Amino acid sequence: MIIHHPLLGPRDAAEFTVLGDASLIERPDPQSADAEDRFYDYVYLRDNPAGLHRELWYHEQGDRSWLVVTRNTLTHEVVGVELARDVALAKRTGKRARTRKGGSA
Amino acid sequence: MSFRSPASIKTGLIDRDTSLAFSFNGRQMTGHAGDTLASALIANGVKLVGRSFKYHRPRGIFTAGSEEPNALVTLRAGAHSEPNTRATVAELFDGLVARSQNHRGPLHFDLLAVNDLLSPFLTAGFYYKTFMWPKSFWEKLYEPVIRSAAGLGRLSGAEDPDSYDKGFLHCDILVIGAGPAGLSAALQAARSGARVILADEDFLPGGRLNAETYEVSGMPGYRWAAETIAELRSMETVRLMTRTTVYGAYDHGVYGALEKKTDHLASADGKPRQVLWRIYSKQAILCAGATERPIAFANNDRPGIMLAGSTRTYANRFAALAGKRVTIFTNNDDGWRTATDMVDAGAQIAAIIDNREIAPLVAPAGAAIVMGGAISDTGGRLALKSVTLSNGQTIETDCLAVSGGWNPNVHLTCHQRGRPQWNAAINAFVPGGELPVGMRVAGSASGALTLAACLAQGHKAASEAAKALGFTPSRSRPAPASDEASANSAFWHVGNSKKRAWVDLQNDVTTKDIKLSHREGFRSVEHLKRYTTMGMATDQGKTANILGLAIMAEASGKSIPETGTTIFRPPYTPVAIGALAGRSRGSEFRPTRLTTSHQWAKEHGAIFVEAGMWLRAQWYPKVGETHWRESVDREALAVRRSVGICDVTTLGKIDVQGKDAARFLDALYTNTFSTLPVGKVRYGLMLREDGMVYDDGTTARFGENHFVMTTTTANAVLVFRRMEFARQCLFPEMDVHLISATEQWAQFAVAGPNSRKLLERVVGREHDISNEGFPFMACGEVTVCGGTRARLFRISFSGELAYEIAVPARYGDALVRRLMEAGREFDVTPYGTEALNVLRIEKGHATANELNGQTTALNLGLEKMVSKKKDCIGRVMAGREALIDDDAVRLVGFRPVNPQDSLVSGAHFIARGDAAVTENDQGWMTSVCYSPHLETMIGLGFIRRGNERIGETVIAADPLRGSTCEVEIVSPHFIDQQGERLRG
Amino acid sequence: MKYSALRIFTEALGGNKGWKPVWREPEPKARYDVVIIGGGGHGLSTAYYLAKEFGITNVAVLEKGWLGSGNIGRNTTIIRSNYLLPGNEPFYELSMKLWEGLEQDFNYNAMVSQRGIINLFHSDSQRDAYVRRGNAMLMAGADAELLDTEGVRRLCPFLDFDNARFPIRGGLQQKRGGTARHDAVAWGYARGADSRGVDLIQNCEVTGFDIANGVCKGVVTSRGKIAANKVAVCVAGSSSRVMAAAGMRLPIESHVLQAFVSEGLKPVIPGVITFGAGHFYISQSDKGGLVFGGDIDGYNTYAQRGNLPVVEDVCEGGMAIMPMIGRARLLRMWGGVMDMSMDGSPFIDRTHIDGLYFNGGWCYGGFKATPASGYCYAHLIARDHPHPVATELRLDRFKTGRMIDEKGAGAQPNLH
Fold first, then answer.
1. Which residues of A are less than 8 Å from C240 in CB distance?
2. Helix (H) or strand (E) holding B452
């Protein structure tokens, strides 16, 4: 597979390691009353969709960026790549991500 | 008797001036440059080349390409032996040695041919119904007999002496196959300005143009091919790769290709045998051609029966006659061309048998024409002697050319699970709608079965691909040729025979097996394949699958597409495992990481041990020491008595900087780092988000916004990855940056009561490293050896007064030598990982054996390190009910009740008097060593409620090695429980 | 129809015309006592044991494709019970005992072949971990032996003992481990279930559940609605997709595991060899093919195919440990979709919906579990409480912190 890195252009997927669902960016509030339930969901439960899946890839053999890759799990087609930090920051501010995006194949 | 056409009749595309000697089963023969092993065997009149898998039927060469099911030989000898090599693609070289395989006794008298007589009992899947009694006989008798009879060729058992390389290529357009469509496509793509790779499995590009007698652009096809290739070779944007099979289509335009580099030479001469390429393409055009298929009829497997197109290949390209008196059995027009070509090459045509009623073409003079006919049987044990027609007529013949039509080579279109579609016009599957992204199909691979159409389609596909990439397609026209007759019919097998008719030649699957499969309910095409093993042989059913499917369709009264489609998986043709591994083998399998003191340690006779990718000194035997324990005991004692030095470079070192560095570490570690004063070090414990302990290590604060943390050797990469995740994804608003500095700093532990004295001789005098000036857990930047920048940490893994000193990696070798020299008067002792382990077990420190990812802070007795004042990764989940259970295992120490007894890691604890069974399991021993200070073995381990059970005696059971030992549960801190030594 | 050597003989004399279909092709009924979703190995074995051991025969197995088309049809055929943790080992040992009597039990030769399995180790700490595991196996009634370098060399002289990057220090051997003919396992169970009255319904895709007031009353399929007292899901790689239709999110991700087979060769590898440090394991089939594999690709996928980096990684592991296979050719590679759970261990449990049962999370270890999975699932369905060896295979174990994490890798499925 080829991942279009927002900063570095097309890179072979072998340069990356995969963590999993991009929902892992959304760490629950540890102070909330139901923190244990929310962490259980966060740590263990997955949508695991057959189709578009937003997922975290780490450019370990490259610039160490964590990326949010939107990829179809049925066809492996990549439809979008964003810097995970941009995505995480956008979530903080509640704004729509003004993210740097990589192209798709 | 020579079966080579005289040059006066047929020149062929061989070099008759270059003769090559070769042997087959010890018989010496000669061929020519340009021959394959198969064509040379045919030219020498060899018919019998092998035996089939199950029935050990005599078999001859059946095809002229990579689809060959029969002619498998073991090429070369000794460690160079290459089993299961298809003679049809083995390029002849001088000195080639080949042997037939899969027979007991000589090839012409195979003892296992007895299986053929037993065939009524050996039908599809018979083995699933028997060999079950008595039960123990399967492993002892039945299976060994079956295994020794099965298999084809034999591996030498020796290491593969050849080397293999890997490479990466990039192009705009990859053209797969250099037949008429591929050449036409490559030419148009290159003329349009695209960077082109043209790959073909053959050593002579041109495909069927070299095998047929068609004209292109008013010249013989093979000549047009040669001229086109010359033009392509002259273009800088074109890479022409012969002997290169594109074996797989992977995601996003990535293709796997295997290039044979020295397989056609007598010796690789040190060069790589093959190169495995990964080709990154923007567009790809599949021009893989088509494969002829046979017709099933009784005894259709005898040597001398060959696909019609292959007889033409041998005659036209190699000037080799598959027979002198040839019979043709066809269901299509293409078969008729065989007659003309064979006559032109010097053979005689005995008969043409066509199942259709009307002759489509004119046959050569003298050939008997049987329209509406079929072959009902054949004769000849080791070579074909005759064929019998349905009308009872028997014809003497030494070669039967069979054509059942052509199947497009759709394989690569299926590698991403695309399904081919049935095309009733050509009675074959053609590429389906869902192709791999960027792939187009042209020529006969797409179902175009005439030359002009192939040339035009290749040209058109290239124009489209070029246009898709933004190039302006060249205005040149496709090369002209005329459309030959290509009518065909759906005729798959000659029925109503009691005799066996083969579908899959290699695996001995007959039409009867397919009917039996239907009778027994194995009707889906996947059941059919799995039950009968059709298509599972080394040829992957390239000539068999459609035939089997058609017969199943007939049996079930359905159409072929209703019955199912077969799809193909990579590789297109088998690929040597050595090529897929490349240079990553033996000691080069994975990189080896060496510490900067490696050379020095080697000079001092160190024994090294693997620590992940690292090699670390395990111990340093001295002259006269005969057992590793002697060395390790000496080293450990030396540390506690005086001073020792150990390379600890392999610990992960991560530089953490930024305004929020302290806050970041607070989030990462269970304990607090924001309160750590500058110039101090603190031990930290890290959890995974699931609450289990992940890693530990010390972190030093060198400045308000600058920390240097360490990880365990094993987790250096993983922890850094997780920290980057936390930094970018969980705490993106924090101002913090990370750099892995593991390899930038060489670091040594200097441990023992004399360590300060030693260091005072190395560290710059301006630095106060007295106990007051540089107390336990201090850190600072210092200079060593007269000005070299260094970092000094007063930390201790051994429990002694100890330091770790780090210098830029390039000074590591010099520093260890200087330390040893400075420590001579203290009898400084280098110690390895074994002594390090003894010292840490004596102090009850956990390492990877205890931090194994399955243990909690509570298990480790470190629950007090989990701050309740702040959050950290893993804190919430660490509070789940089972993880805070009082009954949980705890890390404690163990001593044998009898001091002479041995302890072993991996023993399980059970109560005295209990049986060693799962229900009674209370925990396990994680680490043991002989303590030279306590003069007994000691251990660390996890046992249920261990912290409450100090003084209790339990059994450490090691049934694996048949030992048990009474052990006393003790504190994990075996020496200096108050920690006075390290503060001294 | 009972199979035997005599039957083969008599049928052969009759021209092999008398063989009967191994299973019927029934139309689905409107209602069953139990509907099993998924006609792979586990679904078929569940049906078999429901009928044979628990007397429940009004059962349908609904299969989207053809029987045995799941991972039972695309694995590396290894059977073993060499697990560490008490939540797993007794379960896999039950499976091993069922394998040992399987063929006589269902009158079908699945070629269960106990030629042994060896897990190689390369360092003292790996040895210690294997000793702990070997002891756990023995305590659970399984067999285990510890081999030193020479012990490994005696059994596998062809391994690289001279120039290996990771020197072979020994291995943990389970002699009762081995292989079985994977397709035949599916067919044997299918035949055994069918002959006891179970309806095996192919080309029948379940598209939804009939759930009302927290009770599952049946399924909606491509061939109409089917009512059932109990619905048992058993769909491996499709677990998340199917359970989503019941409104459940699972602690499971779907990943691809690739597997490989070489051209047929005369016997050269005796049993199963696992080279963990190189992500490589291998055995040789009775037909002569070297069957081998390694790690999952690592990304979520439902496509039954992988990519080249892992292909090369696996072959590198192979050449590193047994350089004699360099000239053997890889014939076929394929991928199976694995239901990778969050701790690497499976689930056999009831759900919070009455009448709906779940079996999944087998990761890449489902084949060896086929007999015990079916047996314990049948037990759960029939009795509504778990079989004693499957009490820890619960869906809620992450909620309570009772993970069964053999590798200690944590909640990241692609590391298990």
1. 46-50
2. helix B451-468
- B740-787, pLDDT tens digit by residue? 999 999 999 999 999 999 999 999 999 999 999 999 999 999 999 989
Q: Where are the domains of chain B?
A: 15-126, 164-290+408-468, 593-650+744-839, 652-740, 886-983
Distance to chain B for A28, nearest Cα, Å: 10
Cα B950 to Cα B779, B857, B887, B913, B914: the distances in Å are 36, 19, 15, 19, 20
- The answer regarding whether domain B652-740 maps to CATH 2.40.30.10 reads no
Which parts of C231-360 fold into alpha helices (H)?
A: 239-244, 308-321
User: Which residues does chain A have within 8 Å of residue C254's beta carbon, measured at their own beta carbons?
Assistant: 48, 50, 73
The residues, any chain, with a CB within 8 Å of residue C174's CB and separated by 6 or more, are: C80, C81, C82, C116, C117, C137, C142, C143, C144, C145
Interchain CB distance below 8 Å, A66 and B280: no
Supply the CATH classification number for the domain B15-126.
3.10.20.440
Pairwise pLDDT comparison (C289 vs A92), residue with the higher score: C289
Asked whether the whole model's pTM tops 0.90, one would answer: yes
How far, in Å, CA of B200 to CA of B218, rounded? 25
Q: What would the pLDDT profile of B305-317 be if each residue is shown by its tens digit?
A: 999 999 999 999 9
Query: What is the nearest CA distance from C398 to chain A, expressed in angstroms?
Result: 7
ipTM score for this prediction: 0.96
Nearest Cα of chain B lies from the Cα of C91 at a distance, in angstroms, of 12
- Record: contact A40-C411, CB cut-off 8 A: no
* Three-point CA angle B799, B801, B802, nearest 5°: 90
What is the structure's pLDDT at B363?
85
| Best mutation target, A15, A56, A64, A76, to test chain B (most B CBs within 10 A) | A64
Q: Contact at 8 Å (CB) between A102 and A5? A: yes
Q: Are the Cβ atoms of B251 and A36 closer than 8 angstroms?
A: no
CB contact under 8 A, C398 and A74: no
CATH 3.50.50.60 for the B164-290+408-468 domain, yes or no? yes
* Candidates B83, B689, B906; nearest CB to C265: B83
C302 touches chain A (CB under 8 A): yes
pLDDT at B484: 85
At A97 the pLDDT is 53
Q: C139, C327, C332: best mutation site toward chain B, by most B Cβ within 10 Å?
A: C327
For the B886-983 domain, the top CATH level (class) is: mainly beta
**Average pLDDT along chain B:** 96
| Residue A98 clears pLDDT 60, i.e. is over it | no
B799 torsion bin: left (phi>0), alpha (psi -120 to 50), beta (else): left
Best A66, A68, A74, A76 member to test B by mutation, with max B CBs in 10 Å, is A66
Asked if B918 lies within 8 A of C89 by C-beta distance, the reply is yes
| Residues pairing with B258 in the sheet | B245, B276
Name residue, tokens 């200087």. B818
Cα of B740 to nearest chain A Cα, Å: 11
Query: How would residue B135 be classed by pLDDT, with cut points 50, 70 and 90?
Result: confident
**pLDDT tier for residue B565 given thresholds of 50, 70 and 90:** confident
Share of chain C above pLDDT 70, in %: 100
CATH fold, domain B593-650+744-839, is Gyrase A; domain 2 (3.30.1360)
Cβ contact, residue pair C303, A17, below 8 Å:
no
Instruction: Indicate if the pLDDT at residue A104 is higher than 50.
Output: no
| pLDDT in the model for residue B52 | 95
CB contact under 8 A, C307 and B250: yes
CB distance B876–A36 less than 8 Å? yes
Extract the tokens encoding A75.
């066809």
Residue A105's pLDDT is what? 42
Assess whether pLDDT exceeds 80 at residue B800.
Answer: yes
- The domains located in chain C, with CATH, are 24-78+182-251+343-415 (3.50.50.60), 112-177+253-341 (3.30.9.10)
CA quadruple B548, B551, B557, B558: dihedral sign: positive
Contact call for A45 and C240, based on CB within 8 A? no
